Batch of 2 targets.
Target 1
Amino acid sequence: MVLAWVIAALSFQVATSLARPSQIHRTRDEPDPSFAVKVQLGGKTYINKGLVGFGLIPSNFTESTGDTLGGIGSAIALKRGSFSQNSGGTFKGTFVTQPDRGFNVDGTIDWQGRQHQIDFVLTPYYGAEDLDFNDALNTLKLTYRDTLLYTERNAQKTTGLDALAVRPAQTLSNNITIADPALPVAATNKHLSLDAEGLVLNADGTFWVSDEYGPYIYLFSPLGDLIETLQPPKAILPFIDGQLNFTSETDPDTGRAGNQGFEGLTVDSTGTTLYALLQSATIQDGGTDKSTSRYTRLVAFDISEPLLTRPSVVGEWVVPLPQNKKGNTLAASEVHFVSDGVFLVLSRDGDGHGGDDNNSAYKQADLLDISNATDIHGTKFDDPTNPIAKKGSLVKGITPGTYKSFVSFIDDTQLARFGLHNGKPADQTLIDAKWESLALAPCFDSDFPDDFFLFTAADNDFISTQGISLGQPFDAGLDVDNQFLVFRVTLPGASTTESDVSH
């Protein structure tokens, strides 16, 4: 049953918005040219045309299982065939959103992995005048629909508990065509530990999920049942004393750092190449400290026939993440395919509403070009004894991707147009701290055929004073809503998967 709700009626500071007419006047059909920020990359001009939409889901909203709906910005994707243009210049579609591992501020919990479907109506605002926060919410209206839960082998629930145990690799038998590698499991119930981050939807209804524990990539059926597991090269796997150890509580000797797994997941326009981005450098590549962890890895898998043979690694490149003024790495939270060799990468600090500090210095969807980068897959660098970087410096012989600043989420002028701000006070209009997702949809503008809407959503970490987790109420001491932003961007040569949209 669809659980429809009106955001303005549920948000404690926007209860009066339904009592007055919207102040969104469609005085422009295109963004104000003065907002445009142009970036040159690979001989092409990419343009950030500014913020055009904002919406939220209140921090205390509950989903169909009875739990608080939270963390949904860990990953978003557009449901295939759902995005279309309405009359009057509005657009509609359905987000598939995926939280990570539940409310775990006080430790990991036995929380089943899941995804949610959320319908939306986008009414882009192109005016230069500042909207009231309540009116800004009318630019992106959101309606929760339903929730799908994830199960693993033997119909067991997945869990969010820390992976303190290892399930041995499967051996091939008559009923197993593609065996599981050694898997991260909880020590108590032995269920698959899943800290879900990336999400890619396939044409046949199956979907890929990247996680932080492995870091692995899992293929699930349309009903949420585990089908297959992809394991990255050994250099990325976490080893302690020569043995696989998937815990997120401590860093391994080599491999991905704790809580720094495959944050980003995307697929090319043909749906045959899957890309996974490590959040920051592996331990041997400098991941022990933020000052040396900028050189991370983007790995590509051939998924053209995933049910016939295990997808193999077909590419691996070094990504030079941005650094703040202190020289610390701004880790990656998402990657999204744009065109051959070109991607969007979401890198950020942890400040904002619900973060360590109210004032954020960096939250951006940046451009990455790997066209001239060195492909290191199948080389000595897939062995952890051969790091790609030492003490924060890339070894000789490796050319990293080209990284360019592009769309800032914290531009003061753009935030003010939607009643938002960066920095004090810490109220409902403060931009959230943790933005971790990206999705693209065409603008259907014949005058600007390369223009797309760039959607992003925040992971609010389930922070609510009226939360419910595993049937038990909790008070996190703060209310942080699930915020969504929409930008309009020009991406030359970009395309979406053919069945993602309908005209």
Target 2
Amino acid sequence: MVVREKILDMVVGCFKRHGAKRLDTPAFELKDFDIAGQFDPMIPDAECLKIMCEILSGLQLGDFIIKVNDRRILDGMFAVCGVPESKFHAICSSIDKLDKISWKDVRHEMVAKKGLAPEVADRIGDYVQCHGGVSLIEQMFQDPRLSQNKQALDGLGDLKLLFEYLTLFGIAEKISFDLSLARGLDYYTGVIYEAVLLQTPAQAQESFNVGSVAAGGRYDKLVGMFDPKGHKVPCVGLSIGVERIFSIVEQRMKTFGQKIRTTETQVFVATPQKNFLHERLKLIAELWDAGIKAELLYKNNPKLLTQLHYCEDMGIPLVVIIGEQEMKEGIIKLRSVASREEVAIKRENLVAEIQKRLSES
């Protein structure tokens, strides 16, 4: 639950930073972010990709790439390659498997199982094995076949503009124009994108199952289908695969033996002596009232070692220690659990010192 909560907090925090308002629907629970309305091209689309980058970087899942394509480029590519319109969907679903199986296998499926002419499949192969950045978009503008198709040119024009904005957002190197990206053709009308984690050699050995962790695109006709008057509302959005991310994080924690803190306690109130419960209760109330997350053991006379071990086990960073000597001198000992260093702090300065340390950590 702690891991899941941290992931969700990160995602929702990012959405709010970008001006999201919560809808009274279960959709927000799926961690979707959508921008609806008539705006100038590619500005909201670029922000969606920026949000994806912020979330994936913030979750520290490792290196990732966001593949980008456009529905119009796909349709144009199929048309100029000679795919019959009735086969667009079937061929699309084959191409979508290219991240899992080889081009040879995809080609075989398209020709043997879906009845596509071999020369048409080969023409498609020339395109779908291409991926790159702005230079690939420029290359496709010059392509003798694709440049003859208006839909494809519209899509390429928008992608060129998109990359301009992505460069200004400082994320262009995380984005790859990938002609094999062919998803959600039932509803996407323009730009489509999908974020995938890149496997390190160590992860490949550990057989981490790393697939798509976020996806989205432009769906300008979907809302109109549900509107009785058929009003068109242009939309672009993204969806974060929280459950998949959660299972990746959980799997990594098991593999690397990482422990997660199940509490957020910042300070533990301890004593080395008997009959100090009253002082501990007064002290902890002071910390709670100052907004500091604090704990003590629910025992009258706990052993100091037991208290310190508890802090180490629970990952609590600071311990305040009060005993007879400290009472006499009007001080409190503040101990760092990690370094085991102790310093004496005047009682009246304790809250300020703890807050200072917490803000530095």
